[in-house]
Specification:
- By secondary structure, this protein is of the alpha+beta class.
- It has a domain at about 15-60.
- It has two helices and two strands.
- The radius of gyration is 13 Å and the shape is globular.
- The two termini are about 20 Å apart.
């Protein structure tokens, strides 16, 4: 099972080290969840086919 981590980022004073952690997760093909005004979004590297497959599986979309 993949490891889940929680990074709390203050939108008024973002911690660059936490942003870099999230960026590295995406670079390695991982997924990142983030809040929007109404729902949570999922982010992935759009050029990484394994990341896109993981995204589709997480959202229960047909592959």
């Amino acid at each position: 099972m993949k490891k889940t981590i929680l990074l709390k980022v203050d939108p008024n004073k973002p911690d660059l080290s936490k942003i870099k952690v999230a960026a590295n997760i995406i670079k390695k093909g991982g997924l990142v969840a983030f809040p929007t005004e109404t729902v949570y979004g999922l982010g992935a590297d759009a050029l990484n086919s394994k990341a896109i497959l993981s995204l589709f599986k997480a959202k229960n979309r047909p592959v």
